[in-house]
Backbone:
């Protein structure tokens, strides 16, 4: 099995606890570990820099997260850093596990584009403007006034397009979503969101949003956050498949990827609580889809997209 997962929050746990390690970690704390990525057959894992509310708004914790990424993740034998399509190709050819950096919320940049350019130099290749709240760039999905992008937020989108940083709309308010879709000259991704028609949650995407992402040649990461999958008490792997099926019905077959949100959740879809259990998803997919389609969902769509839209070099 080959896996690409476009969203996990393990860096946030590593940032908060100095004692934690990514390889040979204490059991029961991390969902995503080096050993589990190996067991899953992971080709590429995106590591989100997510700063908790108490530390948010400063650059230091963002930089500390980058440091943790180097010290704890990239130091593992088979992990390689992916910043360009060339590095991705080499990673696949050498059978390594690629690690890509993303930023979930730009509060700490405080509206300064030079800081964004520095983060690009530090390897950040995808960015969501805000988490659920409002910040200097945009309103998040839980902000009740439902605003869109600020003037600085618009500058941010333009600068990301220039630099080759993918824009991630997963946590944005609907208004901000449509503004980013309109403004961005590059494809846009929703790294960890499901279909609202299947499970009515503000973090999920409407049919119109899904169609717009497809039209823009973007990607949608199916997420395993149980509340975004189903309202049922116990959420099953088959419930995850209903989102995939729906997105396929909207013409999204080539635009579906995985965005687990492992380490960002404290409850799980039954039997899908860490990368080592992704084989259960693959097995369920193979009951309904061809081997080729299953492979596209598990890794192929994301790899094709990244080889096209990561910077060259
Ligand atoms: Zn998130």
Residues:
């Amino acid at each position: 099995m080959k896996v690409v997962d476009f969203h996990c929050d393990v860096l946030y746990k590593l940032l908060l606890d100095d004692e934690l390690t990514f390889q040979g970690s204490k059991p029961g704390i991390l969902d995503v570990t080096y050993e589990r990525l190996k067991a899953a057959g992971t080709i590429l894992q995106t590591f989100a820099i997510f700063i908790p509310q108490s530390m948010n708004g400063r650059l230091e914790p963002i930089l500390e997260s980058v440091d943790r990424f180097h010290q704890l993740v990239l130091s593992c034998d088979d992990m390689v850093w992916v910043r360009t399509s060339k590095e991705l190709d080499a990673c696949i050819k050498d059978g390594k596990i690629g690690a890509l950096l993303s930023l979930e919320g730009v509060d700490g940049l405080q509206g300064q584009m030079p800081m964004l350019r520095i983060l690009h130099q530090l390897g950040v290749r995808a960015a969501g403007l805000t988490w659920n709240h409002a910040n200097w760039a945009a309103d998040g999905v839980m902000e009740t006034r439902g605003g869109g992008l600020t003037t600085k937020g618009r500058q941010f989108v333009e600068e990301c397009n220039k630099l080759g940083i993918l824009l991630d709309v997963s946590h944005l308010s609907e208004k901000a979503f449509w503004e980013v879709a309109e403004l961005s000259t590059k494809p846009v991704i929703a790294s960890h969101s499901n279909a609202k028609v299947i499970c009515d949650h503000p973090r999920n995407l409407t049919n119109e949003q899904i169609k717009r992402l497809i039209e823009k040649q973007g990607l949608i990461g199916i997420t395993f956050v149980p509340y975004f999958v189903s309202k049922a008490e116990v959420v099953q792997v088959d419930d995850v498949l209903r989102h995939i099926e729906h997105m396929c019905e909207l013409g999204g077959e080539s635009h579906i990827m995985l965005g687990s949100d492992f380490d960002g959740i404290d409850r799980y879809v039954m039997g899908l609580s860490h990368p080592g259990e992704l084989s259960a998803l693959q097995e369920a997919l193979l009951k309904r889809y061809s081997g080729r389609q299953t492979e596209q969902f598990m890794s192929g769509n994301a790899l094709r997209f990244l080889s096209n839209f990561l910077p060259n070099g």
Observations:
- The chain has a mean pLDDT of 97.
- The two ends are 28 Å apart (CA to CA).
- The pocket of zinc ion is lined by residues 104, 171, 192, 264 (CB under 6 Å).
